[in-house]
C-alpha cells in the first residue's frame, strides 16, 4: 500500500504567503490520511472519541482551531483533530514503532514521551512527531485503543477568521432555551420577567471576537510543545 506524500515541510519565513483555510483543510486531510495509511489499515477509523462511532470523514470539517506560534504572531492558528481505531493487537509497541519509523522517514522529530506498563500489565505508549512549520502528530497507543492526533501548520490568513466566524454564527443562531427568570430570586416584575434581562440581545460576532482574542492571548509558544491530547477549539 502506497503512503501519500506529506506536503510543505519547509517552515514559512516571516512575511511569507500564509495558507488559506481551504489549504489548511486540505493539509489536515492529507496528514490524517497519510498517518492512517502508514498504519497499514485504512478501515474502521473514527473521529475522536471512538465511543461516538462517528466515521472519519474530512468532508465534515469537524476540526478544532488552536493558537500556535511558529509564524511569529499571536494571531496564528492551526487546525487540529484526532482519529481513533480499535487496537491492531494487544501490545501497543508494534504500532508505535511502525509510526515512529514512518514519521522519522518523513523528516519529523519523533519523541516517545510515555512507555508505561502497570503492575497488572496494562500498557500505554505515547509518541509525538513535530516539524518546524508547526505540523504535529501525537500517537497514543494502549491495549484498548490507537489514537492519532493531527495539527496542521500555522497560518494568519484572514480566511481562517471568516471560516471560524461562519461556523460560530451557525451554532449561535440555533434555537436556545430562554434563560431562567431571576424572579425566583425575588427580582423582576409581577409577571416574573426582568425587563433588563429580557431586553438583552447578544451580538454573536462580538462573542466570537472575544472568544478568538482569548484563545490568541494564550499562544505565547509553539503548540509543538503541547501534549498528544491537548485539544484546541472544537466545533
Structure overview:
The protein is an alpha+beta fold and 235 residues long. Helices cover 27% and strands 19% of the residues. The chain is built from 5 helices and 7 strands. The protein has helices at 21-39, 93-105, 158-172, 195-198, 204-216, and strands at 46-47, 64-67, 77-85, 109-117, 123-130, 136-142, 146-151. Strands 1, 2, 3, 4, 5, 6 and 7 form a 7-stranded antiparallel sheet that branches. The radius of gyration is 21 Å and the shape is globular. The relative contact order is 0.19.
Write the layout of secondary structure elements.
Elements: H1 21-39, E1 46-47, E2 64-67, E3 77-85, H2 93-105, E4 109-117, E5 123-130, E6 136-142, E7 146-151, H3 158-172, H4 195-198, H5 204-216
Antiparallel strand pairs: 1-3, 2-3, 3-7, 4-5, 5-6, 6-7
Rounded radius of gyration (Å)? 21 Å
Indicate the percent of residues in helices.
25-40%
What portion of residues belong to β-strands?
Answer: 15-25%
Given the structure, what is the number of helices?
5
Shape: globular
What is the first-to-last residue Cα distance? Answer: 33 Å
Regions with little confidence, pLDDT below 50 for 5+ residues: 176-205, 207-211, 213-235
Mean pLDDT: 76
Amino acid at each position: 500500500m502506497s503512503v501519500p506524500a506529506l506536503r510543505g515541510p519547509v517552515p514559512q519565513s516571516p512575511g511569507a504567503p500564509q495558507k488559506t483555510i481551504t489549504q489548511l483543510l486540505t493539509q489536515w486531510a492529507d496528514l490524517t490520511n497519510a498517518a492512517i495509511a502508514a498504519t497499514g489499515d485504512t478501515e474502521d477509523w473514527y473521529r475522536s472519541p471512538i465511543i461516538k462511532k462517528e466515521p472519519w470523514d474530512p468532508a465534515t470539517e469537524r476540526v478544532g482551531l488552536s493558537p500556535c506560534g511558529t509564524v511569529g504572531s499571536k494571531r496564528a492558528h492551526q487546525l487540529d483533530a484526532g482519529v481513533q481505531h480499535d487496537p491492531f493487537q494487544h501490545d501497543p509497541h508494534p504500532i508505535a514503532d511502525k509510526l515512529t519509523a514512518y514519521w522519522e522517514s518523513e523528516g519529523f522529530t519523533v519523541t516517545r514521551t510515555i512507555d508505561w506498563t502497570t503492575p497488572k500489565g496494562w500498557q500505554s505508549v505515547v509518541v509525538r512527531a513535530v516539524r518546524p512549520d508547526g505540523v504535529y502528530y501525537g500517537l497514543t497507543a494502549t491495549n484498548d485503543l490507537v489514537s492519532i492526533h493531527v495539527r496542521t501548520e500555522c497560518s494568519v490568513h484572514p480566511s481562517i477568521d471568516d471560516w471560524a466566524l461562519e461556523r460560530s454564527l451557525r451554532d449561535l443562531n440555533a434555537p436556545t432555551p430562554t434563560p431562567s427568570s431571576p424572579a425566583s430570586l425575588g427580582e423582576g416584575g409581577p409577571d416574573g420577567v426582568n425587563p433588563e434581562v429580557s431586553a438583552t440581545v447578544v451580538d454573536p460576532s462580538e462573542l466570537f471576537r472575544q472568544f478568538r482574542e482569548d484563545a490568541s492571548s494564550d499562544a505565547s509558544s509553539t503548540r509543538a510543545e503541547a501534549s498528544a491530547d491537548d485539544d484546541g477549539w472544537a466545533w
